[in-house]
Write a structure and sequence with these properties.
The protein is built from three helices and twelve strands. By secondary structure, the protein is of the alpha+beta class. The strands form two sheets. Strands 1, 2, 3, 4, 9, 10, 11 and 12 form an eight-stranded antiparallel β-sheet that branches. Strands 7-6-5-8 form a four-stranded antiparallel β-sheet, with no helix packed on it.
Length: about 180
């Protein structure tokens, strides 16, 4: 029961099923997410966040199903939904994000992105205007990331929390 309370309100492990955050987070890594991070503050550029997939419908489940799901989520075996996503915060509320000449520009200024692999490429896209209660998110593996370039900025209410450490496998343990 304590694990369910902690998972619901404080921290939760998440399994990473895709390559969208490589090299920062590898396929099948587990990360810990601070669910209180944005109760007291706002997302910052560069934060790695878990959020609800904008295309996934809300869960409709019975009480026993919800209890089983919560226990499995608490131990990191599954997440809230099949497609909770993890990406990096690139654009903050009120900003404009654009990709030109293989560089991300925020309000016209190039963004320094030391977390990207050398040789990462991006086509020219945008501009994308970020609303007052939204963030613009991109995966670190720009060629293989389904992110705000496709589904638009994400509402702050859909951000579950900030990923702060890779916890599994042990060979990949690292702060984010």
């Amino acid at each position: 029961m304590i694990a369910v309370v902690v998972k619901t309100f404080l921290v939760q492990p998440f399994w990473i099923p895709s390559e969208s955050m490589v090299p920062t987070i590898e396929v099948n890594d587990r990360v810990m997410v601070n669910k209180l991070a944005y109760e007291l503050g706002e997302p910052q550029r560069g934060d790695v966040v878990v959020f609800r997939d904008p295309a996934e419908p809300d869960l409709d489940e019975s009480i026993p199903e919800a209890v089983i799901r919560s226990v499995l989520e608490a131990v990191g075996v599954r997440t809230r939904g099949r497609d909770d996503l993890i990406k990096r915060v690139i654009g903050l509320p009120g900003e404009t994000v654009e990709i030109r000449g293989n560089r991300v520009l925020v309000d016209g200024a190039p963004l320094e992105e030391p977390y990207l692999d050398d040789g990462a490429t991006m086509p020219d896209e945008g501009p994308f205007r970020v609303g007052e209660d939204e963030v613009f998110l991109m995966g670190d593996n720009r060629q293989f990331s389904f992110d705000s370039r496709r589904f638009g900025p994400i509402g702050l209410e859909d951000v579950i929390g900030r990923a702060f450490v890779v916890i599994w496998p042990l060979s990949n343990v690292d702060r984010l």
